[in-house]
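TOKENISE THE FOLD
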Amino acid sequence: MLAPFAVCLFVEYSLLCLQDRYEALENTLKTINRNSCKRGLSLAEAKRTFESAQREWGANKKTLEDAIMDLVAAEKNLAEDRYCQESDAQAHEERVRVNKPVAYWGIFF
């Protein structure tokens, strides 16, 4: 009768070992799930940060492009204004030269 008792103890010991192993694996699985959730939250936060930075970069790019276009337009207007001023100055010099009083024997005509 000792043999069945030993078998019974062995089976009970084996079941306890299996239950301990099952609990250890279950704890490991819970830990992995918690870590997975944390990483998922970290990934979601990183994605939001990236999308926010991307939108900000796009807005900055648009602002820079607009500033460049304004500078180009201002440079063109400045060149046109300079050309107009030079033309006006030359026309004024021509009018002054043509309308210059002529002194002829001390009399201005």
The two ends are 154 Å apart (CA to CA). The chain has one domain: 7-96. The mean pLDDT is 86. Strands lie at 103-104, 107-108.
